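Let us work through a complete example step by step.
Step 1: write down the sequence.
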Amino acid sequence: MMKQALVLFAHGARDPRWAEPFRKLADRVQSQRPDIVVTLAFLELMSPRLPECVAQLLEQGCDRISVVPVFLGQGGHVLRDLPLLIGQLRQDHPQLQIDVAQAVGEDDSVQEAMARYCVGTLSAQQAGMPGAE
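Step 2: predict the structure and record it as tokens.
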């Protein structure tokens, strides 16, 4: 039986507060899928980096890992850096099945949710403005 993990892969930042929304996202995902291991990994500036994360998951007995880039688009990090990391991980751990999703911001349902949020801010702004109808 395969033990699966879901890695939310983000950029990373110097300010530790930057990661808070990603931690909340990981918690939400974990609550929806308690049967798998859900974790965060970062490209740079924060820990764990993706290779460290994969090593930890292997120690936990995971043999299938799905990586979801929590980036808005398929920029250089997703198009260049991530494939290099994945290629090295596949070479280092040939027994491990690694799947990679598209950047989360490329998904139509995510774009729709973001559009609803953006439009919703107009109503909230207008509700607080004097003279708004």
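Step 3: interpret the result. The first helix runs from residue 20 to 32.
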